[in-house]
Amino acid sequence: MEKDGKQYMYRSTSHYSKEKGGPVSDVEYMGRVVDGKLRPKKGYSYDEKTGRFEPIASVVQKREGGVVRTLIFGDVYLLDALQRRLKILDDLVAAFGDEEARRIMAVAFAYAIRPEALMHMSDVIERRAIRETLKLPVDLDFSSPRISELTERIGKQTDCVDTFFCRRITGSEGEFIFDLTTESTYSSRNTWAEWGRNKDRVNLKVIGLGLVTDRKGRPLMFYIYPGSMSDKVTLKRMVEDVARLGGEDATLVLDRGFLSPGNVMYMLENHVDFVMPMVVGNNHLMKSVVTGISELVGDVKHLHVHGGRSYTVLQLQMGIRRNKGGNAARKTVWEDPDGYDLLSQDDQEFGSCEGFLDVFVFRDTASAGEEVAGMDVALDGIIHDIEGAHPRDPAKFFQKTAGSYANLLEFTMTKEGMHVEIKQNAHTFASNRKGVFVMITPAGSGRGCDDILNAYDVRDIIEDGFLEDKSEGDGRTPRSGLKPNIRGRTFIRMVASIMRMEILSRISETSEDKRVRPEDKPRDIEKRTPTSLLGSLSNIEMVYGEGWKRMTELTKDNRLIFKMFDVGPMSDMGN
Question: What string of H, E and C letters represents the secondary structure of 87-115?
Fold first, then answer.
């Protein structure tokens, strides 16, 4: 690149990003080109024969002060500040002992900076002041074989892992979010891997992964289970584990994946406190709920404002009862042979129910308007594409063109071709459903609308919180078949995810904070990810000598990032 008559060299490194869902490029400034040769930037060396460009982590030069080393420091400093605030290393030390805890923290730092396969963490560590920050020997080996040994040791120390989980759970606020997912694997030796519902939709065996997080999505514990295990069995195991590790009075915030009558009945029978959404389907009960909330629109007695949004609210109760042998004809009878009936409070048999739920029906005024408008625009486009057409198979053409909107339309064949009309009743019901969501909690919990909406606000956070890069961050599917290694690798990712989710939460809060002027926020903060934000701090380096160290200069963006996390003062960073 040439600018003002001077030549500058950059390098672009491509890698897979789970956050972006594809390849991304990291562009790094290398230095100036003088007389056809690269003059590397301060603290870096360049070998013309091999093309190696890297920070000088060994001897840079000799001075009166002795040997000088220069390492990337900015991203490590922020992660260390966050882990101190969240007491992560303290909990690791209590669980694994000081030396092993710092090793784990070092690899977790590297993984938080660049979430790729753990075999690549050595390069990340070598280029940064991770050992120095964590007070580890500067020659401590973090090569791929040593990291593999570390993950195996972690996986075998189940008591230590449980101690860490216990400390994270008991140190939280008592409201936990559950999620389940799957990780595909090629391994034929992995006894956890079985054929089951693959949530990545690939034709591979899967390992089941369960996660418990706090309200900010920061992981508290995880559980690995065979891929064919049902959600009900897994939920029971997770509830028991949380209680065993100190969270017996917890409130569980669950996503729609846990919604089944069997799961709801299990939690009610075992006095598990929970909040979870229901699916607004087309069954008779849900149709009556949608009709009920639509009739209340505009009624100020049912108006509720929360978080700057306006809602129409309907509160009611439902009951659930077991239908013995109701699933006897199903192939999955081994999971639960009983069926379940869900009854509204107006049903004559409501009193015969075994469990009861408080039901909160919300209609988001703004979302409803936007969704109805979007639906109508889509319908208009479909009608335009079909009207007057003369296809060989009209029914097939109609279904293919209308897609998910087919149930809202009907067609007839005329001399002029196909004629399409919107079905009035179907359109009315679809419009009434827009912006509507339903939340349930055990009857008599004492929760109000704000409590339920606060839980609804975090319904998606678990998707971001659990192993942001389930396929090792670089797009590969793991092949490891050893249980201890899988458990240890997942543990390190969990530790890294605690810090990454803290960064993600702060990015969201800052970008939406209207009290802060745009010029007082880091540039393009709303577009930042944990990886890109940490990457923007990699220009900050620490120069180490014998008995002294000095930090390089900070940019305005660096200072705004540290201010965003309330980290500082800047003058103390190099001390």
Answer: CHHHHHHHHHCHHHHHHHHHHHHHHHHCC
Torsion angle in degrees (nearest 10) through CA of 386, 390, 391, 392: 160
Give dist(CA 541, CA 55) in Å, integer. Answer: 10
Backbone angles phi, psi at 169, to 5 degrees: -70, -50
Number of domains in the chain: 3
Q: Identify whether 61 is part of a domain.
A: no
Is-contact 236 214, C-beta < 8 A?
A: no
Q: How far apart are CA 497 and CA 8, in angstroms?
A: 36
The token pair at 191 is 């006894």
pLDDT tens readout for residues 140-185: 999 999 999 999 999 999 999 999 999 999 888 767 887 776 655 5
Same domain? For 453 and 465 the reply is no
Model pLDDT for residues 515-526, shown as the tens digit of each residue: 889 899 998 898
Q: Quick: pLDDT tens for 216-240.
A: 888 898 888 775 566 667 778 888 8
Tell me if 452 is assigned to some domain.
Answer: yes
**Is residue 232 helix, strand or coil?**
helix
- Backbone phi and psi for residue 96, each to the nearest 5 degrees, phi listed first: -115, -10
Q: Dig out the tokens for 311 from the structure.
A: 């809602």
Q: Of 457, 483, 516, at which residue does a domain stop? A: 457
Whose tokens are 């009907």? That residue is 410
Of 163-177, 236-250, 380-394, give the range with the top mean pLDDT. Answer: 380-394
Residue 245 and residue 295 in one domain: no
Q: Pick from 438, 230, 231: which is nearest to 342 by CA?
A: 438
Torsion of CA 479, 480, 481, 482, to 10 degrees: 180
Residues 268 and 213 in one domain: no
Which residues, including other chains, have CB under 8 Å from residue 291's CB and lie 6 or more apart? 432
The answer to whether residue 415 sits within a structural domain is: yes
Claim to verify: residue 294 and residue 344 sit in the same structural domain: yes
* Measured distance CA(45)–CA(50) in Å, rounded: 12
Could you give the CA distance from residue 455 to residue 294 in angstroms, rounded to a whole number?
A: 23
Distance CA(324)–CA(341), nearest Å, equals: 10
* 230 token code pair: 């049902």
Greatest C-alpha distance within the chain: 97
Q: Closest Cα partner for 202 from 170, 227, 166?
A: 227
Is 60 part of any domain?
no
Query: Distance (Å, rounded) from C-alpha 255 to C-alpha 278?
Result: 9
User: Is the separation of the CB atoms in 106 and 136 below 8 Å?
Assistant: yes
Same domain, 96 and 82: yes
Spatial distance between the Cα atoms of 208 and 199, rounded to a whole number of angstroms: 10
Nearest Cα to Cα of residue 428 among 294, 283, 286: 294
The last residue of one of the domains, among 457, 478, 502, is: 457
Residues 91, 213, single domain; the answer is yes
Domain residues for the domain of 324 are 256-457
Q: Residue 271 is encoded by which pair of tokens?
A: 């006095």
What the block records as the tokens of 462 is: 């678990």
Judge if 275 and 367 occupy the same domain. Answer: yes
269 and 414 assigned to the same domain: yes
C-beta pairs of 172-175 under 8 Å, 24+ apart in sequence: 172/214, 172/220, 172/247, 173/214, 173/215, 174/247, 174/249, 174/250, 174/251, 175/214, 175/215, 175/250, 175/251, 175/253, 175/455
